[in-house]
Amino acid sequence: MFDWESLRVFLAIAQAGSLSGAGRMLKVDHATVSRRLGALERDLGVRLVDRLPRSCQLTEIGAQVLRISMEIESSAFAIERAVRAEQTPTTGRVTLSAPPVLATNFLMATLGQFRERYPQVQLAIASQAQSVSLGRREADIALRLYRPTEYDSVTRKLGSMPFALYASLDYAHLASPDQWEFIAYEEQLADMPHQKWLVNFAQGRSIVCEVSDITTQHAAALAGVGVAGLPTFIGDADPQLRRLPFEGEGFCREIWLVVHADLRHSPLLREVMGFIVEVVGQRFGG
Prior knowledge:
The protein is of the alpha/beta class. It has 3 domains: 4-86, Winged helix-like DNA-binding domain superfamily/Winged helix DNA-binding domain (Arc Repressor Mutant, subunit A), CATH 1.10.10.10; 92-160 and 254-284, 3-Layer(aba) Sandwich (D-Maltodextrin-Binding Protein, domain 2); 161-250, Periplasmic binding protein-like II (D-Maltodextrin-Binding Protein, domain 2, 3-Layer(aba) Sandwich), CATH 3.40.190. Helices cover 41% and strands 24% of the residues. A hairpin with a 4-residue loop joins strand 1 and strand 2 (56-58).
């Protein structure tokens, strides 16, 4: 019988496309990944992966084993979720995945209130721009800025996050809209709705600075670099920024709460979700 841990390593290799990529996913070194793969292949008596100079390619039997392995992994996660859902104590650790703009600029400010109300709960907030898999237990609960589409999840819209244009009080072209220069996302994020709205509004005016996240856009605006499109809960709260008047279509992002259907009745998660619904609703629900 083969080692289940070796099967987990094989799955990571298939997902990452290389031994080194699998090592980064699993937080182990390249040698460990190679050793585990070799052990699995010896136990099964077949070659699962062709090792190329910069990548790995599944053999025909490797692809068959991958499909079965994914089913096994899915069943294993389902067992974990079923057990967690039946745990009645409202004590333990809960991982909440949230986009950086909410994690850094909003949720952190609510942690004191959360700790006072639920001192027995350890809340881990994972600030992630990418969506995580709730089915794979990469997080217990998630906040997202779009309507989730996973078929096995339960979702709820909590509110909307409106945006506006801001510049430093010291910005040289504050009173001259035709000379405004804009702070935008870097090129690899060009498909983001926020970026499309800003570029459309700029109408050919210069993009003077490109960064990777809203927190850095905020800092660039404060430095007088140019005009940034920021969530109003950030921009309006900063006395060193001025909200700029503009004509045209406004922009906002919806805020959604999502949990795997298997865990929606977990007493522990329900307490955390109740708190999130409350604080997000108070700030963004209007």
